[in-house]
Amino acid sequence: MLSLPEYGWTDFSISDAKYPLSYITNVPIDWLMAAVYGLKNWSPFTVYGDCETTDVYCTVTETFCHVIYEGYEETPETYFVSLTMLDFCKALYSDISKDIDAWSDWNHYDDETFRQNYKRKLLALLDELGTLIKKVERDPWSRQY
């Protein structure tokens, strides 16, 4: 779903589409926070990415994702993807967990203290999301409504 970050960019791939997301938005933290909120409350959530001249929004629900891709001069492209909330969260968890050091350098700060604090925040969010994923997998009826 998310490629490893490179030079402040990551590719968001969903279905047959691929969107380059810029460092302008805090993709790893914002997306993990949204996923944690969604699983914790079993509530739809939206993640956003700035593609620099276009934007992509993905609303994740219990049974599908609704993707909206819009430019500044064109009619928004909108479509639905058969990807559940749990599967979206598992993919996000996996993609960021693959190389936590690469994601810790998302904003390319030269400040080592900032980078370490950022890494701790990512690890805390990953830990919380991982715990929620296991809880839902173990007991689907534990979801809050």
How would you explain this protein's 3D organization?
The protein has 145 residues and is an alpha+beta fold. The protein is 41% helix and 26% strand. The chain is built from four helices and six strands. It has helices at 27-41, 85-97, 100-104, 112-138; strands spanning 9-14, 17-22, 45-50, 54-60, 65-71, 77-81. It has a four-stranded antiparallel β-sheet with strand order 3-4-5-6. It has a two-stranded antiparallel ribbon with strand order 1-2. Helix 2 (85-97) runs antiparallel to helix 4. The relative contact order is 0.17.
Please state how the strands of the largest beta sheet are arranged side by side: 3-4-5-6
What is the mean pLDDT?
92
**Helical proportion?**
40-55%
* Number of DSSP strand runs: 6
Order of helices and strands: EEHEEEEHHH
Sheet having the most strands = 4 strands, antiparallel
Share of residues in strands: 25-35%
| Distance separating the two termini | 27 Å
Helix/sheet category: alpha+beta
Q: Count helical runs.
A: 4
Name the shape in a single word. Answer: flat
Uncertain stretches of 5 or more adjacent residues: none
Work out the radius of gyration.
15 Å
